[in-house]
Amino acid sequence: MRTKIVAGNWKMHKNAEETEDLLNDLIDKLPNDVEARVIVAPTFVNLSSAVEHLQFTNIGVAAQNMHQSEAGAFTGEISADMLKSIGVDIVILGHSERRAYFHETDALLAEKVNTALKHDLEVIFCFGEELKDRQSEQHFNIVENQLKDGLFHLEAKAWENIILAYEPVWAIGTGETASPEQAQEMHEFIRQTVKTKFGAEVAENVSILYGGSVKPENAKEIFGKPDVDGGLIGGAALKATDFSAIVAGI
Ligand code: PEP
């Protein structure tokens, strides 16, 4: 049985004090009777305090990005080893904002994935089509290529540390959500694509999260689809009441 996961990407929100407040609020409000992994991804500067704050809970902490190199003259960057050294075991790679604003390509992401896995980091790998791709009915091709270019060089065993996050760009932060049927259709396609390359066991075990304007009102229906194993949440992860309600919908 694959794992259900709800992860909150806090992006560039919450200073140190606000991070602590939100974590306390989450500890207070998150339902403890759900069988889902819950992960939060605060900013780099607050990762260390988040790890410490959550050490006696079952809430995981993820970084929102990392550099592909081991170390070096890369001003402003963070390495996989640095993340591990403060107790972070999960990293989000390939978020559409990293792809769009920081020009991260599939080839670069493949390098980042390799470095993360080498350091025993679990990877939440994000991908998804833009609006123009869906309008021109290229969405399946785009998603297939992102998967192939970012992850298909891996060995089957490495997939134990991969979580997929399908995030149609047109649904991120826009308030427009893919319908549960659109999400299911794409997730099924993704699982089938993974199966064709890596076999049924890998495909059945990999968790595929949906991301894009998930809110308490739509979470349950989207998460109810057979190939949707949870969500990557942006805006609604910044309020403990909303995030907890989404987790309760799993
Ligand atoms: C995201 O940025 O990963 C995301 C899904 O954002 P939102 O939930 O705000 O659409």
Automatic annotation (TrEMBL):
Homodimer. It comes from Flavobacterium macacae. NCBIfam families: tim. InterPro entries: Aldolase_TIM, TIM_sf, TrioseP_Isoase_bac/euk, Triosephosphate_isomerase, Triosephosphate_isomerase_AS. It catalyses: D-glyceraldehyde 3-phosphate = dihydroxyacetone phosphate. Belongs to the triosephosphate isomerase family. Pathway: Carbohydrate degradation; glycolysis; D-glyceraldehyde 3-phosphate from glycerone phosphate: step 1/1; Carbohydrate biosynthesis; gluconeogenesis. One of its GO terms (biological process) is glycerol catabolic process. One of its GO terms (molecular function) is triose-phosphate isomerase activity. This is Triosephosphate isomerase. Keywords: Cytoplasm, Gluconeogenesis, Glycolysis, Isomerase. Its EC number is 5.3.1.1. Involved in the gluconeogenesis. Catalyzes stereospecifically the conversion of dihydroxyacetone phosphate (DHAP) to D-glyceraldehyde-3-phosphate (G3P). The keyword Isomerase applies. It holds the Pfam family TIM. GO terms for cellular component: cytosol. Its main location: cytoplasm. Substrate binds at residues 9-11, 173, 213, 234-235. It is found in: Cytoplasm. The active site is at 95 (electrophile), 167 (proton acceptor). It comes from the Bacteria. The keyword Nucleotidyltransferase does not apply.
